[in-house]
Amino acid sequence: MYCEFFGFSEKPFTITPNPHFIFLSSIHREAFGRLLYGVDSHAGFIALTGEVGTGKTTMLRTLLTQLDAEKYRSALIFNPCMSGEQLLESICKEFGIQADGKDRFSYLDALNRFLLDQHQAGRTVVLVIDEAQNLAPEVLEQVRMISNLETERDKLIQIILAGQPELDTVLARHDLRQLNQRITVRCSLTPMKLKDTQDYINHRLKVSGSRIPGIFSPKAVKQIYRFSHGIPRLINVACEQALVMAWTRESLTVTPEITAQVLLELKPAVERNSFWYHITRWLFAGK
């Protein structure tokens, strides 16, 4: 494959959330700092929002890998499309908690005992719920009830709700105002600028072991930025396909011509059926 051709030890632009490739743009650094502050200050509730593909899940996984196991206990719930009772069961399972029964009260009792034990041992418990915009209002209310497990001076569990911008709309519901008022730390991820996009591409190439300078020409990077609007997942998709095409042409540089052809293929089907799409493709084919 192209990895050997370019000298990569691994693919640089996979779309799976991999903390090994974490790149903190100025926007990501600010959001990451807020997450750490919220956890360390025992804020209780933290909200992280961002458009699809902006790197929320990667950032959350990176955060969890950086928490010292001696000082923290953490769990990640990734599929929140469940009932309140199922959510409690999943939380207990992720923390390795054994409940006496299979009902809500048994799960809450077991979780409370676990949290008190961890608090006494000086550990901070962190629960991350990703794709939280999919939680039903009654399940979010159950999450709020979990946050009621506390001592007179401190919150026993730090809860991070992460999701797409629709999460803000859900939290703004009148019947969820108690939960919304408890969120003391809020952060959001927005698309990267051109400079960060350039640095992001170079960072992933470097992590993958590249020793070839300037694989992506400056103009190719600008084309990818315009296509992706600075969204990491779309950058990855475009860069991956561009490397494949460069490999098939035995070119160690991703030229603007290669990038333009790749981006044409990545356009939505509606755009691909347009008159200008066919004219542009005809020109790039040299006809």
Task: Describe this protein's structure.
This protein has 287 residues and is an alpha/beta fold. It folds into two domains: 26-189, 3-Layer(aba) Sandwich (Rossmann fold), CATH 3.40.50.300; 192-284, Helicase, Ruva Protein, domain 3 (Orthogonal Bundle), CATH 1.10.8. 52% of the residues lie in helices and 11% in strands. The chain has a five-stranded parallel sheet with strand order 2-3-4-1-5, with helices on both faces. Helix 6 links the parallel strand 3 and strand 4 (158-163). Helix 9 (194-207) crosses helix 10, helix 10 packs parallel to helix 12 and helix 11 (232-248) crosses helix 12. The longest helix is centred in the middle third of the chain and has 17 residues, at 104-120. The two termini are 30 Å apart. Residues 269-287 have low confidence and may be disordered.
Quick rundown:
By secondary structure, this protein is an alpha/beta fold.
